[in-house]
Amino acid sequence: MYAKVFAQIYDGTLCTRGPWEALVTFQQFLVLADMDGVVDMTPAAIARRTTIPLEIIERGIGELVKPDHESRTPTEEGRRLVPLAEGRSWGWRVVNYAHYRELKREEDRREYHRQYWHKRKLKNSTDSTDSTETQHAQQNQPKQKQKQKQKQENIEATPLVVLPSAKRLPACPTDEIVSMYHAKLPMLPRVEVMNDGRKRSLSARWKQILAEPEFAKNEDPRSEGLGWFAWYFDHAAKSSFLTGKAKNWRADFDFLINPQKFVKVVEGHYHKEQA
User: Fold this and answer.
1) In-domain check, residue 25
2) What's the confidence (pLDDT) of residue 117?
3) How many Cβ atoms from other residues are within 10 Å of residue 256's Cβ?
């Protein structure tokens, strides 16, 4: 059993003010909780399952069920745990568990795209190297034989690409994506004119994303695509370089939809200390 623990958990009052037993116990609840954030176990059972001493679990639960008016989330008066039923001495629900689950999904999605674009870049690099080596070898062959071999290699190397059908591939929602860009990246220059060049470039990025396997299987690719661009702009907003905080320069809409820059933004190249 395991669960992702995000760095932001160490910035809240649970870590900065509460006893360490509360933080340790809360981490165990994140691991043990079901899809609804429920841990229907006694403290003794939790202690046995996690091999953490019972007194630590009991003290941690005692702190986690208390109100915390300085918590960043006011739900349940800042409590981290609430009992499943009054008068029952065991069984709790993790407050705002859906939030932690969504954080995991966001992190997984970011990691998926980072890995995908990294593998794609390596593949393109390998293909380019192989092509160069093939060309050098062919220069020493008779022209006729070289042409025949090149023709055969072109046939064998041509990938079979299956794209979503025209019916399943929704048109690029240009206005919605531009509005999303303005809302999520207000520190960047606004798009005053959406000319044909920008429309073509954005449409190409839209089709590029929807051609991914994870979107091709989705029954509502339009909503999923918009969700992906929401993630993309949120991701860009976290870069000090792109937002002008690191240098006397900032990105703009054209930069973010440029095919080469697009890949680098997704892979996090501009999120390093020195871009």
Assistant:
1) yes
2) 59
3) 21
Q: What is the pLDDT of residues 28-57, one digit of tens each?
A: 998 898 888 899 999 999 999 989 999 999
Strand order in the sheet with 81-83: 38-39, 92-94, 81-83
Residue of 231, 248, 240 lying closest to 275 (CA atoms): 240
* CA 97/CA 93 separation, integer angstroms: 8
Who contacts 150 (Cβ-Cβ below 8 Å, separation ≥6)? 138
- pLDDT tens, 196-234? 999 999 999 999 888 877 666 667 788 888 889 999 999
Distance (Å) of CA 207 to CA 181, 194, 247 = 18, 18, 32
CATH number at residue 26: 1.10.10
Task: For residues 40 and 57, give the distance between their C-alpha atoms in angstroms, rounded to a whole number.
Answer: 14
Q: Tokens for 109?
A: 């999605």
Instruction: Tell the burial category of 90 from Cβ atoms under 10 Å away from its Cβ (0-12, 13-18, 19+).
Output: middle
Say if 162 falls within a structural domain: no
Which amino acid, residue 266? V
Rounded Cα distance between 208 and 163, Å, is 10
Six token digits for residue 18 = 């509460």
Domain boundary, last residue among 72, 99, 126: 99
Indicate the DSSP class of residue 65.
Answer: T
Read off the tokens for 175.
């206005």
Residue 44 belongs to what domain range?
A: 7-99
Domain boundary among 71, 99, 127: 99
CB contact at 8 A, 157 and 168: no
Q: Which pLDDT value is given to residue 177?
A: 95
Q: In angstroms, rounded to a whole number, what is the distance separating the alpha carbons of residues 26 and 22?
A: 6
- Residue 107 covered by a domain: no
Q: What is the C-alpha separation between 203 and 42, in angstroms, rounded?
A: 54
95 belongs to a structural domain: yes
Give the count of domains, the chain: 2
